[in-house]
Design a protein that fits this description.
Structural class: alpha+beta
Order of helices and strands: HHEEEEEE
Number of domains: 1
Strand order of the largest sheet: 2-1-6-5-4-3
CATH architecture: Roll
CATH topology: Nuclear Transport Factor 2, Chain: A
Number of helices: 2
Distance between the termini: 32 Å
Largest sheet: 6 strands, mixed
Oligomer: single chain
Length: about 120
């Protein structure tokens, strides 16, 4: 099942979550292949390199958010340059209480030698 691709794509998801939780936009940006697509709340957003901004962590669905964690990351399909994951992540408040858990699909691709998130679809707001 393309073990090298799965290992590389899994590292991307590890780095994606670590950078997101650290609110490190520069590091988080490195975990994408742009343009990237996000489908959530019945809305598709095309994400370019300048889309994410520090203020995003202070409003909307992230207003009371402190950190997130992967609950599940199962490989659905894997090829030499693309891996599909069936995931579930949970969002937490600072006190450790759960905001919610969300099933999602992540597509991680290798483009010009760089592994990054190309598309994600979730039930998260």
């Amino acid at each position: 099942m393309n073990d090298d691709a799965i290992a590389a794509a899994t590292r991307v998801l590890d780095d994606f979550m670590a950078a997101f939780n650290a609110r490190d936009i520069a590091a988080w940006q490195k975990t994408f292949n742009f343009p990237s697509v996000r489908l959530a709340s019945n809305t598709m957003v095309i994400i370019d390199a300048d889309y994410h901004q520090p203020g995003m962590f202070d409003r909307g669905a992230l207003a009371e958010w402190d950190h997130s964690a992967w609950e599940r990351r199962n490989v659905i399909h894997a090829g030499p340059d693309k891996v599909h994951f069936d995931t579930r992540f949970t969002r937490y408040r600072k006190d450790g209480s759960v905001i919610g858990g969300f099933d999602s699909i992540y597509v991680v691709t290798c483009e010009a030698g760089h592994w990054g998130v190309k598309a994600r679809s979730s039930y998260a707001p």
